[in-house]
Amino acid sequence: MMRIGTMVAHREDPNEIRERLVHLNDMQIDNCQFNSWGPAKQTKENAETVMSLFREYGVSPTALWCGWEGPAKWNFYEGYTTLGIVPVEWREIRVQNLLHGSEFCGWLGLNHMISHMGYLPENPNDPEYEAVVKALRRIAEPMKERGQYLLFETGQETPVTLLRTFEDVGTHNLGVNLDTANLILYGKANPVDALDVIGKYVMGVHAKDGTYPTDGHNLGKERPIGKGKVDFPALIRRLHELGYDGSLTIEREISGDQQKADIAAAKSYLESIIAAL
């Protein structure tokens, strides 16, 4: 049975994590993805501190969402040169970031690590495509030895590009963190239809909603769940047919009281759909 979770960010002050976990308890949410950007915070000592807090509040982390160093511009222009391991300038340091993230993932006791890999080249004849495949293999192979899976968050690439990349990396420990809104925000696919291509690889889900781009420079707009273009009843039904029984991790990329209200409303909405199954 699918469960409802949300995101918990890795803050410098453990009390900020504690406050977030208190809020999860209030909403009766018992699982989360743990989002950590910056290798300086990803120490064994911090992993022990974080896991102690999770145990104290009865919240189970399902995956590490691992960020990387350097710039990140979430649009259709600078995104190509700043996101993930695709930009040559940042590739090596981010390969090292993700390898270190894999160690941190192990210290947390988790076996799923998620990240954005960037705008994977859609043309398999592009010389950079093979270079990116080799870089991904360098990350995935040590993770496989640790019993870990590397999950690609959807967004910057079409589903078929993602499928081809998995086939060409060939390590058999790659998966998808299906961000339901990102496929729409980037104008790459309808998330329900995308499951026909990459459904068997889905090992995590970001429940998020949004609208398609309306100009050629900027992404579409994130919206509260149920207010955008994602057909959640059809999506959840298709995930169920594919045998997915993991968490639907609510992600609402705003802050403050409105974020809390939107997450609470999304939880009720998604639970009603799951109950109907």
Secondary structure blueprint with pairings:
Elements: E1 3-9, H1 14-26, E2 31-36, H2 44-57, E3 60-66, H3 79-82, H4 88-107, E4 112-115, H5 127-145, E5 149-153, H6 159-169, E6 174-179, H7 182-185, H8 191-198, E7 202-207, E8 209-210, E9 222-223, H9 232-241, E10 247-250, H10 256-276
Parallel strand pairs: 1-2, 1-10, 2-3, 3-4, 4-5, 5-6, 6-7, 7-10
Antiparallel strand pairs: 8-9
Helix pairs in contact: 1-2, 4-5, 6-8
3D structure, described in words:
This protein is of the alpha/beta class and 277 residues long. The longest helix has 21 residues. The chain has 10 helices and 10 strands. Strand 2, helix 2 and strand 3 form a beta-alpha-beta unit. It is globular, with a radius of gyration of 18 Å. Helices cover 45% and strands 18% of the residues.
